[in-house]
Design a protein that fits this description.
Strand content: 15-25%
Helix content: 25-40%
Largest sheet: 8 strands, mixed
Number of helices: 9
Low-confidence stretches: 123-127
CATH class: Alpha Beta
Mean pLDDT: 91
Order of helices and strands: EEEHEHEHEHHHEHEHH
CATH architecture: 3-Layer(aba) Sandwich
Radius of gyration: 17 Å
Structural class: alpha/beta
Strand order of the largest sheet: 1-2-4-3-5-6-7-8
Protein name: Pimeloyl-ACP methyl ester carboxylesterase
Organism: Leeuwenhoekiella marinoflava
CATH topology: Rossmann fold
């Protein structure tokens, strides 16, 4: 993370560049730095990049879920005075972006999802991290990527710290359950926002057929694949990710 974060009211966020706002939503175990390559590229290409920190661990437990985060996001968009936004979300961030699109279509210029939850969760449920087992956590983190080397010690340490913090673990499980509850299959056919779907061909968390289902169910979507790539394409294949998204935005005159 090379940029200074700003704080305004209850929101902490990164903001860089000028132009149409691309509001980026990180995943459950993700951070703002996951989007460094996207930030650098698009903030110099006529877009304003804005990445709010999502209150994953600070909401009251009863409110910890996809719907509340979507409303939090809309409060943020209103605070910033954005009339229209492009939302880009990875994993849980994609799910929040989808739910926000369902609730507030009028502010949506376009939607971009990559490795998004919302239709299928090979969720944390069945084998969620054993607390205290560093090697297990390391393996889980590596499984997110096609190339396990992308799971740096810093990334593994962050996940390890999260699952060994009782409060964070309880919130993480609540979010996972909320993601399963808020399945979007019935909603997608009514969501007419232009959508770009960018997916790793080797995603183990949300497998390729999930991307195909999103593409079938959304009325106005385009699906792009990145080979030799796992669940976080913008981290693992940043150049290809940026090229695909740039080309798509150009093709849609956005």
């Amino acid at each position: 993370m090379k940029h200074q974060l700003k704080t305004e009211g209850k929101f902490t966020y990164l903001e860089v560049g000028e132009g149409i706002p691309i509001v980026i939503l990180h995943g459950l175990m993700g951070g703002l730095s996951n989007f460094d390559a996207v930030t650098d590229h698009f903030s110099q290409s006529g877009y304003k990049i804005v990445i709010p920190e999502l209150p994953l661990y600070s909401m009251p437990l009863i409110k910890t879920g996809v719907k509340t985060f979507a409303k939090y996001l809309n409060d943020f968009i209103k605070l910033k005075g954005f009339k229209e936004v492009i939302l880009l979300g990875n994993s849980l961030g994609g799910h929040i972006a989808l739910y926000h699109t369902k609730l507030y279509p009028e502010v949506m210029k376009a939607l971009v999802i990559t490795g998004s939850s919302g239709l299928y969760e090979s969720a944390m449920g069945e084998s969620y991290p054993k607390r205290g087992d560093y090697e297990y956590i390391k393996k889980k983190a590596e499984d997110v990527f096609y190339d396990p080397a992308v799971a740096t010690k810093e990334i593994v340490d962050e996940v390890y710290e999260t699952v060994n913090d009782r409060n964070k673990l309880i919130k993480t499980l609540a979010i996972a359950k909320s993601a399963i509850r808020h399945n979007m299959a019935q909603d997608l056919p009514t969501m007419k926002t232009s959508t770009c779907i960018i997916w790793g061909r080797n995603d183990n968390v949300t497998p390729p057929e999930v991307a195909e289902d999103f593409n079938k169910l959304l009325p106005d979507s385009d699906l792009f694949w990145i080979d030799k790539c796992g669940h976080a394409a913008m981290m693992e294949r940043p150049q290809e990710f940026n090229e695909i998204l740039s080309g798509w935005l150009k093709s849609r005159n956005i």
